[in-house]
UniProtKB/TrEMBL annotation:
It comes from the Eukaryota. Keywords: Acyltransferase, Transferase. This is Acetyl-CoA C-acyltransferase. CDD domains: thiolase. SUPFAM superfamilies: Thiolase-like. NCBIfam families: AcCoA-C-Actrans. It comes from Tieghemostelium lacteum (Slime mold). Residues 266-387 form the Thiolase C-terminal domain. Residues 11-257 form the Thiolase N-terminal domain. GO terms for molecular function: acyltransferase activity, transferring groups other than amino-acyl groups. The active site is at C99 (acyl-thioester intermediate), H345 (proton acceptor), C375 (proton acceptor).
Amino acid sequence: MNYTAINDRDVFIVECVRTPIGRGYSSGMLHDIQPVDLLAMTLNELMIRCPKVDRSLVEDVICGVVSPVKEQGANIPRFALLKAGFPQTVPGVQLNRMCGSGQQAIHFASQAIASGSIDVAIGCGVEMMSVVAMGSDWQLDNPNFNKGFNFKILHQGVSSEMIAERYKLTRDELDRFSGRSHELADKAQKNGYFKSQIFPIKLEKTGKTVTQDEGIRVPVDYTKMAKLKTPFKENGLITAANASQISDGASAVLLLSGRKVKELGLKPRARIVTCVSVGSDPEYMLLGPIPATEKALQKSGLPLEAISVFEINEAFASVVLAWQKQLKIDMSRVNPNGGAIAHGHPLGATGAILMTKLVNELERSNKRYGLQTMCIGFGQATATIIENCSYTDSQPIPLLKSNL
């Protein structure tokens, strides 16, 4: 690493890790682990992987949790970091930007570092949907809560059907994209692409050690997929097969300032180029990744063609295909190792999981820039562009200035 090219206030990812993702049901492989313990394991593993960064140097742990109640309430990152052996001086805070929570945790950590307020932070996320059900913190069935809005409060599944109709998507297109997700995730798993980013978890109840995502299903049975019911619209297009899975999981990302990277003699893995969040139409609520992608590119100064790998959350197949059609992105660059339709979507953790996948894929394929974006309920989205620090090219392009 050429330290002369590192600006003190640049923000770098120096390590990232995730759990294997379990199915979010009582039969799921991670169900018997408490959320605080799963997060503690993840934070501990993150620091074990970067021994040059003492735990006492961490100045904040920011954690995404979408259902921050019961076992996932009470500021779970503070309890988890103490369980993980961090000193009492390290603070923690949880946030909820719905499906973008884990990515937003990384954003807040990056922005704090870029501002000069701190030098070392962790952005992470956890969600055990088998333990705390999705929607546990909602009041959307309360008529008093629903009064006074100038838009309809819709289920995300209804919005995904509306998006499919607007973009003239077919059931076969949606199902084929979903099958692609499983097939690519299975290929990545068999080829060992996930091995370095996932840490093994030993299950106390069975004594087994889990090392792989539980939701990937191959061979894909397209005939069976075509027969599934459409719960959000009669004779609609959205089914359980072309939507993300209910899941359990956690992930964590260690971020440092350029100054601290140089001081500790570290080799960073990726540089945060820019990170944005946007608001969008609350009825067509899942189209936010389109303006978020455009805004991230505009702020970075990069053209669309400069992005070699896109990680867009597969909340529903219609979200990804609408985004792809609108921006005319080559699908070979999109979710090259599958996505949430295959491996699952543990809500608060997915943002950090996708970032971990993106960092590893840029390194594996020797690509320079990657962009991650996620749709968010009721009309929001997050997007991040990162640069692979180990990228090599005979004619390298000069580093662009960070624009957080």
